[in-house]
Structure formats: C-alpha cells, structure tokens
User: What shape does this take?
Amino acid sequence: MSPGTPSPDPPDPQLPPVVGLDLDGVIWRGEEPIAPAVEGVARLRAAGLQVVFISNNSSVPVGGVVDKLRGMGVDAEPAEVITSALAAAHLLRRDLPVGARVLVCGGPGVYEALAAEGLTAVDEGPADAVVVGLNREFSYDVLSRASAAVRDGARFVATNLDNTYPVPGGLIPGAGAIVAAVAAAAGRRPEVAGKPSTPIADLVRERFGSTGVMVGDRPSTDGAMADTLGWPFALVLSGVTAAVAPPGGEAIPAPAPPFVAADLGALVDPLLAAFLPS
Assistant: This one.
C-alpha cells in the first residue's frame, strides 16, 4: 500500500473481507493460466479471506468458468462466480415478469442466466428486452434483429462495455465493440449491468458482504468497479495495462491505485498486510 493510503474499512463482523478477482488478465489470458495467480488464490484462501471471481465475460456459463479455473489448478465453486450475464438477468428480473421475452445478442452464459431468473430467451422480436454481450457469432443479421427490437421499444441492456479482451499475444474485440454497433443502429444508449455498474456491485454485496478489495487489470473497468463498491483497487500488470498504454490497452493511472503489482502472486503479501494486520 502506498504511503498515506487509508486502511480498508473494518471487516464485516459476520464475513471475512472479500478479494474480488477479475479473470481475464488476472487469472488467465485466453486459455493460458497466469502462473503466479494460481498460488496467489491458494494463499489468499489459506489466510481466511473470501475469494470471489467477478468477470465481465458474459459468454461462458458459470459451470464453464468453474471448470476452467479448476483445470488451471484454482479451487472454485459456482457460488463464488459472478458474471456480467448474471448481473444483467438479475437486473431485468427486478422489473420484468416471469416468462418475459428477452432477445439475446450474446453467448451461452446469457442464456443460462436468463433461464435461472425465469426469463425467456429469444433470437428475434418482439421482445421486452435486449441483452447484448460478447457474441462470437455476431453478424449483420444479429445486429439487424437486435437493433430493430430496441427501436421498437425493448429495454436495452449491455452486459458490459469492455471494448477489448486480452488473449495470448494481444487483444481481440470485446462486448463493448458489439454493444457500440447495436447502439449506433438503434439510436439508443444501453443500461450497463456489469463492471463497473451498480447492478453487479449490488450482487457482490448481497452475496459476500461490504468489505473488500477489487483486483483487476483494467483501471477503467476494475478500478471504477472498486469505486462503485467503495473498496480499494489493486492493479495487476498481467493484462491490458502497462506503464505506457499498449495499443488497445490502458496506462497506469496517475495517481496510481493503492496497490500495483506485476501479477496476483505479487499482490498477496501487501493484501494480507492490509486486511489481516498482525
């Protein structure tokens, strides 16, 4: 922690502090694990902190996220995973009745999340809402159907606005690029469910308590999520951020966040010192 940085709020008396971990750029890049992160998660758990995985990637079902984590040697349970797809479905269910029609421009994770909330996923209008996320099958036809439903009055929800997605060797287009296309064609801006917006922050607090730290590789998303939660931000340089912004990436902000490290493994000791002082 930087000199003069305030200590985190006292832990919730009922729950240990939360370490909210982004996935892409923190735990893995594409299909490759970031090796120090695996040991880092184990050390955080062994110290008694809650480890929670908070991802803006809406395309993968929760079970797929858990399987990928376990396949890389990271212990995880479905209840410890929150995605922007879950946040989008939870947001819609607050206002829409069971069975409401939701046009999906997204991956399997969105379909799963909507079904869990009792909402009906459809591929064309009419629709009560449209959810747009990372969609590897995105096409002109999908764009046409999604934007038409929004113009016809459907509620417009983006899982997230991340324009890029880190993979080994660089970046690929993220959900934000697809959302921008739908918004341009529809002439409307979306509500945003994922990081750093309130809907996903509300889910984190409901499930895990109000005290913690947000760890991520993207200041504009993960750092802003920390602000939404009222938590300190821990920035890792294993994803899209560097001292000088790479193409499509971000630079370390000035002033720097309370915690900055090369990867999650290097963050463990500073986080334990801050949240579990001896």
